[in-house]
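Table S2 (text version). Query chain:
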Amino acid sequence: MDAPQPLSPQRPVIAVDAMGGDFGPSVVVPGALRGAAASGAALLLVGDETVLSQELTRHQGQGVSLEVVHAPETISMGEKPSEILRRKKNSPIQAACRLVAEGKAHGVVSPGHSGASLACGMFILGRIPGVERPALATIMPTEKAPALFADVGANVDCRPHHLFQFGLMADAYAKNILNRPAPSIGLLSIGEEEGKGNSQVKEAYDIFKMAGNLNFIGNVEGRDLFSGDVDIIICDGFVGNVVLKLSEGLSTSLTRILKRELLSTSLAAKVGTFLARGAFRRFAKVVDYAEYGGAPLLGLQGIIIVCHGKSNSKAIASAVRMAATFVATRTNERLIANIAASEELTRYSKAIK
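Corresponding structure-token output:
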């Protein structure tokens, strides 16, 4: 097919790694079409042209503007990101990032190799000036409104000022995507009191305290994550990834246990279950990761939404809508402004550590 045309200012253009994820094009293509139709975005489906063209014959276009960009090389989950960068120039994630770097797309959605997404984002798109480490941010369901959690896996080894930068970027995200005018920020630790935690957390606490442009409320504990009393929770990527996967596993197990117990009890309990089915549906929706789509990599000069490898078409659709919202709200520009406004504090915090 013809190469994609230069960006039109009228609508977001989202490049989708259509070969990624556990289920590939059979799930990614219909999900991307659904998300584009809902958001008004144009699509660049990146992957093997023959496979994608065949998949597109199974779906209504839904009035979506789309093109297929041929990128036939495949990536396995066991490959190292550095090897993918060097040897897989025609892989979908590399091709999608180049489309953004060349000004032919605004952002990328990928349910594929998250390490490759991070590596391609850093080396092809580059980081926002002043950002040392991009952060992977995810939306977590709580008892109240959803909360933002960062970093959840992009950086397993962090210095205190990296955590501070995660907070700056998450603040802009929460204001523009979650519509929180003054989002509260908590630092994940082993106690609420100042002075609790390891050296990384204690030093990060001091930096956050110096920042007058953030609504920093201090330390929060693991039990506070789902209360909904804090808008943003900050930690390093090692801790964040453990918490994220623990939460996913717990949610899945609780849902299974609940179903098993309700279906194996007395007739009266089954009648009660039938009457409460609306509440159960609402509960399932709240804990469904597909409602939130994916996790953006904050801090890049371009938009990358990283989806779960097991994403279904609903999750892909949500991720495309999220990417389009990032474009419409100019969130990346606000991230840049947040970092620039705290540049002096960031330099100071690096110098004293």
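Notes on Table S2: The two ends are 53 Å apart (CA to CA). The chain has 13 helices and eleven strands.
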